[in-house]
Amino acid sequence: MWPAFASRQSILGNHKPYCTPEERQSSSDPALLTTPKPRYLEQLESYLRKELQSLDLTEKNSQEQKLQPYREVFEFFIDTFKTYKPLLSAIKNEYEVTLAHQKKTIRALEPLKAMVTTVSEECTQQILALQEKENDEINMLKQEKQRLLKVIDNMKEENNSLQTQVGRLQGSVAEEYTRYLNEHDAYKLLLAKLNHMHSEELERSRHQAQVKAVKGEDVVKLTLALKMAQQDLTKAQVKLNKMTADYGDVVPRRDFESLEKKYSDLLQEMETLQKDYEQLHQEYETLLEIHREAAEQRDNSCAELQRAEHNRTPRPNWEKCSEVIPGGADRWGCLAEGKTSDQLVDVLLEEIGTGMLKERNVFPGWGKGDEVPVYLRHEGEVKNKRLTKKDVVSILKDVWKEKIALEEQTGERSGLPEFFLSYLQRRYGEAAAMEWSYNLYENMRLCRSSHVLSSFCDVLTGKVTEEQYHSQNQLVSYLQQELAACDSSSSGTLTHEEFSTVVRGAFPLKREESIQELLQASRCQLDSTEDLIDYTALFKEDEEGNAEPFITKLRSQYVREKQEYLRQLKDKLGDLVEVKADDLKIAFWAIDPGIDDRTLDSYLGLVYGLQQEQPEQEAVPVEAALERLLAGDVRRVGPSPREGSTTGFEGE
Predict the structure, then answer these.
(1) How does pLDDT run across 333-351, given as a tens digit for each residue?
(2) How far apart are CA 38 and CA 10, in angstroms?
């Protein structure tokens, strides 16, 4: 609408750009500040108000009807101002085209909206049906739970009743046993008393016979009595001899039970000592075997040491490199810290290579032959963009990120060389893709100290499989999750003892020296005032992709343990020149009894290929098989058969 103050005053800020300062100063005359509202503008506003008032805005397409008066007013405006008609017409046409495109899009989305509504209703019905079904199942399970609880209560009551009866019966048995012992003792006393009474009766009879004989009784009667007494004496003697023969070796029951209990205790103690002796003997044999192997290893190490001392060359003075490396002694000290001579050679070669790379202006093309990788098929020269390591690391991380996201979306694994080329074409265009490819490849080839660059180059060139790269990342991610799960306070720190426990639990098959190496590498994040480790800082990387010493040590252990695993496999294969699948299976089972069939099939697929219908019929040279296994994700699954679960290699 026309401003309410237009009849009184007009802002002169929108003056002509070509007016002179004098004209601008003179235009501030108060007499010129009053501008009446244009007549044609009032007519257009009046026409627009009438048209809008005549519309019925309650209809469905009221917005399109409301737009029509504005379109007519705009056409009147265009027809009136001939000078601006081309520009205004172009503006109007663009708006019309855009509106038509939006209407077309809306019409195309209306069926989808209806379909979404239908699908939403169907899903809602399915959810309600599932909820009803789950409610029924929950009610049934609750009823079953109540019934089982009643059964458990009944069984508990029955068990208590039975225990009460057992206690009562045990008391009764004890009373009966005591009564039996008392009766047995009483029986013995009664027999002794009867024997004593019998002896007294015989003595009394003998005494009476003597008295009667003294009194002059009949001699015949006395002789008969003597004969009968002698017969009774003979019977008693025979009975006494029989009793002595039958019960001469019998001991009292109490003594027998005491001796039997003592014998049972001694027998149990002897069996325990026998088991301890067998275990000690087995441990002794194991220690003897370990000692023999250690002695052999010591002799071999001594021989290798002597050969190394004989063949070694003087250790180079690496401090001289600080004189030619950019940055001087400080930068060389940071680069050389904690590195071996072989690693220092790599660092030196990388510095030399990157310096030469910056001096080059172009890269020669490799040609378009089939032997050239797809991402390097180009003829002619390619411009050197002189990328920094930070730029290369950022691009390669983005390539991995998009590739992983695409594979999760499609569910199919694609080759890295083809995806790498398509990524560059999609991001930088067809013309500049090859230029970026050559620049990235040359930086990856020379910068081997960065894990991001070296691992990407190894996978890109086929030196290692992509599974090995993902396996190392999963290993690091798994340890990070375990440490976070142990951190109940979410403070990002753990004590040294907690950290050691988590590392040992996460890698139960690592050797003790490997665990100590990891703990030593984590010492750099140990708080000086408290025994706390900032475990979150162990997983950080700088802008150039360089990881902390802890992660570097974990990755180097992965490679070292795989090499040790394959060395054991080679020793088990012995003097074989070629190996078949059956022989390779037997060798794997011998060095890793805990390996499962699925893992074993994946290892055989690395050696013989997944497309072989009968891989067991094909023989592959042992060296070629070991090279293929070294390029893949191969590691120990279970403990070593000799070392056990406490000294094996890392597991899942």
Answers:
(1) 666 666 666 667 767 777 7
(2) 13
